[in-house]
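Pipeline run #58 for the internal structure catalog. This entry was flagged by the ingest filter as a single-chain record with no existing model, so it goes straight to prediction. Upstream metadata was stripped on purpose; only the residue string is passed forward. Reviewer on rotation: M.T. Logging verbosity set to normal.
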Amino acid sequence: MTSAARWLPWIALVLAAAVAMVPGDRLTQWIPEVLTKPGRDEVMHAVGFFILTLCFRGWRGPSASPVRWIPGAMVILILFALVHEGVQLWIPGRVISSGDLLADGIGIVVGVTFCLLLKSPEIV
């Protein structure tokens, strides 16, 4: 059984990896100036990893229980966050940031929480 939901997280990860490879000077040309102010990078990381987490919701099937998809998704996303930051050592104009890693983790936790709240039948 192949569905778009099963491919979505992998496509999203490839796109996020491509963004991580963009040199810093190019990235500042593509991102609106309002998003380049101090502290906004962390917000973009949190939002990006929140969205990546939501993309993983259907990767084990549309009706998979949270126990079936959350642990694997969290491991993949945490490893991806580490690689995503680490690779920036070799990209001109980019730097590794513990603040970015923390924001990535916050985005993952908020994404998982959001998915669990949507799944919960007692929340109206």
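catalog note: The mean pLDDT is 87.
catalog note: The first helix runs from residue 4 to 20.
status: ready for reviewer M.T.
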